[in-house]
Amino acid sequence: MIVTYAHIAIGKDGVPRVEGTPTKVVEIALDMLAHGWDAEMIQREHPDLTLGQVHSALAYYFDHQDVLDRDIAERLARADGIADRLGASSVRARLLAMRAAS
């Protein structure tokens, strides 16, 4: 059985996106996971998307959660690796020092 999702298109790169937009399904999922946002809040934060598009993206995420969670974990590992290679940011250190002083 082939399941289709309204508003979701799989690009040539294999990445599911909200059809007609550059927004990836994983970005919508991360809004929910990282911020605890529900569909209505995600739509408010992405006013270019309809509530139906957000719901479709979330449905796609839940139906493919294992694959997308692995993708998220790989992205986090790459970001951590980049941060480790770059080392501490002098700008961040100055901002933290300013915050501590105030």
Summarize the structure.
The protein has 102 residues and is mainly alpha-helical. The chain contains five helices and two strands; from the N terminus they run ββααααα.
Summary keywords:
64% helix; elongated
How much strand?
5-15%
SS elements, strand count: 2
| Gross geometry | elongated
| Multimeric state | single chain
N-end to C-end Cα span: 60 Å
**Residue ranges: pLDDT <50 for 5 or more in a row?**
none
Mind explaining what this structure looks like?
This protein is mostly helical and 102 residues long. The protein has one domain. The protein has five helices and two strands, in the order E-E-H-H-H-H-H. The chain has a two-stranded antiparallel sheet with strand order 1-2. A hairpin with a 5-residue loop joins strand 1 and strand 2. Helix 1 crosses helix 3. It is elongated.
List the helices and strands and how they pair.
Layout: E1 8-10, E2 16-18, H1 25-35, H2 39-45, H3 51-63, H4 65-86, H5 90-101
Antiparallel strand pairs: 1-2
Helix pairs in contact: 1-3, 2-3
